[in-house]
Q: What sequence folds into this?
């Protein structure tokens, strides 16, 4: 499979979950495990651009899949537009749900550049946050959409390429 | 000068946490790390007849096995924070008897978690089931099954406190309102479960623990005592913590890891899975409260009589705290002159009760604010007006409640008025009336509350008759490094509160640098962080003690910088000010020495120091808040120290077809004194309020009559999602406390305390036509449906 753009080839035990594979075999500890029964969303990663619960997938299922974790959503320097919006809106406290929230928000903004508040709440409804009460997470995703929309519009006005999906700042 | 304190700065923590570069306990890597798993009792109450773990120990990959009997042979029972009437040994694994479903009876350490869990299946335990006791009122009865026959009862504590002329007030009253309220078991359930790693260095005979335990001072004392090891040979490190809210404490698990690590001669990690977390870590105490208000016809409340039964589950560590923590504030924000309070702290065969955001106060507030709503109904008064007639007034501050708590500051009536204003209360009532005419069920709920901060352990003397620990204190360190950069650490490990940011703001102001110049250590390390037995992340105490510790250390360093600079500049230390990392002479900005140069002098060029000034530029400071005092002769005590307050206005709509309650609006106006970082304060209010909403509508650890937990997964135990809660509207007043170093007050619990009552009052208001009284939580669709059906049948 590819993980964060790099090819990975390993032999794994059939019962190794994707979450354990990422965390223990690859050392990508940004993916957190909160419930191991697919409810809390902390372990959410992107598999072929779709959000997936890494606690409910076996690594062995993902032959040839494209997996992106929070480490892959983070630029080498600084923060992505989405991450910066989370910081600017105080959308995280303990930070444990944050990598999964970012994955859910990333998927939403890739599909819907200008989501309504209700659409945002719907998109993150599968991710529990015990600290923020979600208020600032919703605001952060709104802000990220606004900023990304503005920068895409600026690129469009300069006759540049079509608006890119939200990538990096 | 405060340039940084009070600024809504973004957090220093965020860059690492957003990039997945935090370090939580499960991320800590140790060479040769083994993984532990625990075998847990399927019975709520049973005698352990025999355990055979030989087969498990023989399995490939298994390095150590520990049963309760093994643990009892090599360790001592866990020392309770509050001693029980007769000693009740409480080992890290159950010995001879299990007392709740999910109690750990044996543990295995193996090369990985799956191997350890496989090995558990090979352990044979023979149980002789005993009758469970689930209901706390049933546990009080003389014929109840006993958790500890040697105690002769399940009651750990029973007492009656009386303050003021209660009988006289009830005799004089125009009326008495009596009601029975209940609160369920729920928990804040931090998203990261509890975990620990223990490592034994056989050469040094030292133990190192990495854990997300939120009360390291107390835990270190327990570890030393139980392991029989001097505290000087223990080290405890707390990395990033994924939420705590009072739940993150279980010294038993650290002990199990330590004993396994010693046995296996390898480091051992144990991390709860979510099912273990929900069944066995800690539940907010459920309970029953019989409450009577004596009132005058104009709505003035003259006296309060309470019988409060706290269900401890199998909690031997800190029983009675759920009662005591309510005692001082049982009158909430009202000037009620006479109080009678009867406390029962009772054991049942359920998960241990323990600290949970707001501990005890959500029930205090639910009962008192429900009673106020019922009284308003009875008297035909607007519920806001009734409250305004009863508040402690601004002119009475600081006000001492009959049981001895001191409400230090605040404008309780002003807070409610601001909330009504923000809510547009008259317009909301009109809209509600219109909706009712259309047959819709809209309800408006008001609840207001005090929010205490800081705990005074001396108050436990009321229970035990002697003082084991007392006061309220914390410790901190500030150090200017040899290159002039600043480092700070605090004995209170954060679990999401943003202390790295706030401590940097405080230190930056004192030393004339920017928060970016101040590195605040993550978490806690007993080898380097200054700490006390009282150290930890609990009781909303940051503003009460931690700020004082940081300020004290920063000011000691600041004063030394000024002395060194004065010596260099041939000026008086009093004339030196610290601005932009330069110590300069006030009024002569051209005359100054860079902090970096002062640091070089302090560490390297020590002959340049003033005569008698010791080298180095570091200070440790422990701060004790003077409000904490011993118990008074009249049995009054300040068990908690500084009081914020809040008013919540909630609008709900109920769908009568489904029983679903939708929170349409929720306005919070709060007053936590001076806000050290308003951005973080607001975030705390949001999160805390949603904890209360979850308790109001969704969350319950429900047991059946046999003591089996029926809501043991996040599929059955429902947490609020983004779709269940509204955009919470927050406004504030700011009445600084005269009794904290910067005027700040607690803010971590203020939402969780009144929100359940506000939602419950709104639901009852929505159901006015059905004559429903909300006496307990959560208000699930099923509960609502039952009320509606019962109401129809009654007609």
A:
């Amino acid at each position: 499979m590819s993980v964060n753009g790099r090819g990975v080839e390993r032999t794994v035990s059939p019962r190794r979950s994707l979450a354990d594979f990422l965390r223990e075999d690859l050392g990508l500890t940004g993916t957190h495990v909160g419930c191991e029964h697919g409810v809390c969303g902390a372990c959410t990663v992107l598999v072929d651009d779709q959000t997936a619960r890494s606690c409910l997938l076996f690594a062995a299922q993902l032959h040839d899949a494209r997996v992106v974790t929070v480490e892959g959503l983070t630029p080498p320097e600084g923060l992505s537009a989405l991450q910066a919006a989370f910081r600017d809106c105080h959308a995280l406290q303990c930070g444990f749900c944050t990598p999964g929230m970012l994955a859910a928000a990333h998927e939403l903004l890739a599909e819907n550049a200008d989501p309504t508040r209700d659409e945002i709440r719907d998109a993150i409804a599968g991710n529990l946050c015990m600290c923020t009460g979600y208020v600032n997470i919703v605001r952060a995703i709104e802000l990220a959409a606004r900023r990304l929309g503005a920068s895409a519009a600026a690129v469009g006005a300069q006759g540049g390429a079509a608006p890119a999906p939200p990538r990096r700042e | 000068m405060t340039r940084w304190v009070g600024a809504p700065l973004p957090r220093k923590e965020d860059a690492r946490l957003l990039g997945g570069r935090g370090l939580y306990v499960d991320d800590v890597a140790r060479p040769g790390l083994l993984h532990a798993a625990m075998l847990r009792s399927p019975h709520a109450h049973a005698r352990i007849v025999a355990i055979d773990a030989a087969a498990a120990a023989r399995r490939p990959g298994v390095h150590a096995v520990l049963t309760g009997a093994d643990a009892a042979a090599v360790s001592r029972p866990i020392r309770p924070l509050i001693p029980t009437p007769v000693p009740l040994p409480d080992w890290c694994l159950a010995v001879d008897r299990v007392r709740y479903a999910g109690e750990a009876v044996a543990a295995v350490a193996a090369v990985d978690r799956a191997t350890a869990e496989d090995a558990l299946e090979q352990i044979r335990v023979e149980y002789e089931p005993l009758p469970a006791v689930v209901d706390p009122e049933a546990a009080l009865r003389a014929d109840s099954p006993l958790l500890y026959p040697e105690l002769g009862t399940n009651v750990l504590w029973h007492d009656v406190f009386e303050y003021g002329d209660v009988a006289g007030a009830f005799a004089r009253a125009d009326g008495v309102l009596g009601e029975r309220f209940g609160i369920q078991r729920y928990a804040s359930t931090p998203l990261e479960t509890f975990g620990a790693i223990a490592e034994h260095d056989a050469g040094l005979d030292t133990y190192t623990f990495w854990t997300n335990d939120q009360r390291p001072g107390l835990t270190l004392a327990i570890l030393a005592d139980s392991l029989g090891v001097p505290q000087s040979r223990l080290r405890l490190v707390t990395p990033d913590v994924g939420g705590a809210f009072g739940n993150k404490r279980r010294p038993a698990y650290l002990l199990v890891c330590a004993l396994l690590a010693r046995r296996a001669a390898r480091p051992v990690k144990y991390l709860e899975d979510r099912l273990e977390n929900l069944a066995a870590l800690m539940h907010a105490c459920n309970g029953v409260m019989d409450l009577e208000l004596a009132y005058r016809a104009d709505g003035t409340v003259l006296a309060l009589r309470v019988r409060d039964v706290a269900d401890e589950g199998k909690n031997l560590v800190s029983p009675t705290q759920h009662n005591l923590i309510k005692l001082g504030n049982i009158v909430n924000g009202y000037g009620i002159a006479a109080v009678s309070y009867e406390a029962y702290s009772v054991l049942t065969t359920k998960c241990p009760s323990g600290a949970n955001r707001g501990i005890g106060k959500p029930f205090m507030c639910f009962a008192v604010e429900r009673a106020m709503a019922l009284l308003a109904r009875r008297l035909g008064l607007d519920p806001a007006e009734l409250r305004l007639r009863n508040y402690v007034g601004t002119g009475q501050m600081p006000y001492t409640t009959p049981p001895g708590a001191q409400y230090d500051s605040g404008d309780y009536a002003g807070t409610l008025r601001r909330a009504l204003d923000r809510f547009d209360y008259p317009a909301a009532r009109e809209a509600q009336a219109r909706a009712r005419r259309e047959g819709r069920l809209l309800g408006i709920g008001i609840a207001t509350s005090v929010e205490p901060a800081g705990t005074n352990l001396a108050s436990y003397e009321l229970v035990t008759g002697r003082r084991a620990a007392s006061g309220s204190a914390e410790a901190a360190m500030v150090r200017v490094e040899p290159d002039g950069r600043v480092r700070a650490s605090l004995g209170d490990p954060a679990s999401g509160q943003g202390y790295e940011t706030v401590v940097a703001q405080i230190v930056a102001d004192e030393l004339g640098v920017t928060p970016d110049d101040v590195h605040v250590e993550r978490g806690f390390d007993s080898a380097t962080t200054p700490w006390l037995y009282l150290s930890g992340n609990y009781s909303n105490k940051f503003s009460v003690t931690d700020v004082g510790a940081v300020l004290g250390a920063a000011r000691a360093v600041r004063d030394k910088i000024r002395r060194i600079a004065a010596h260099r500049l041939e000026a008086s230390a009093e004339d030196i000010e610290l601005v932009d990392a330069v110590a300069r002479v006030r009024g002569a900005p051209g005359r100054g020495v860079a902090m970096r140069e002062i640091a070089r002098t302090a560490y390297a060029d020590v002959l340049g120091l003033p005569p008698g000034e010791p080298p180095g530029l570091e200070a440790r400071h422990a701060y004790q808040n003077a409000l904490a005092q011993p118990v008074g002769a009249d049995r009054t005590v300040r068990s908690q120290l500084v009081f914020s307050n809040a008013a919540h206005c909630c609008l709900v709509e109920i769908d009568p077809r489904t029983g679903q309650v939708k929170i349409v609006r929720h306005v919070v106006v709060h007053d936590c004194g001076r806000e050290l970082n308003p951005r973080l304060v607001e975030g705390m209010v949001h999160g805390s309020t949603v904890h209360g909403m979850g308790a109001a509508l969704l969350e319950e650890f429900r047991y059946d009559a046999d003591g089996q937990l029926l809501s043991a997964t996040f599929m059955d135990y429902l947490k609020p999602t983004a779709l269940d809660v509204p955009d919470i509207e927050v406004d504030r007043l700011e009445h600084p406390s005269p009794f904290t170093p910067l005027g700040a007050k607690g803010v971590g619990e203020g939402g969780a305390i009144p929100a359940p009552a506000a939602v419950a009052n709104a639901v009852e208001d929505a159901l006015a036509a059905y004559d429903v009284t909300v006496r307990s939580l959560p208000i699930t669709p099923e509960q609502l449906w039952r009320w509606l059906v019962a109401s129809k049948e009654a007609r």
The first helix of chain A runs from residue 18 to 25. The beta strands of chain A are 2-3, 6-7, 44-47, 50-53, 66-68. The two ends of chain A are 27 Å apart (CA to CA).
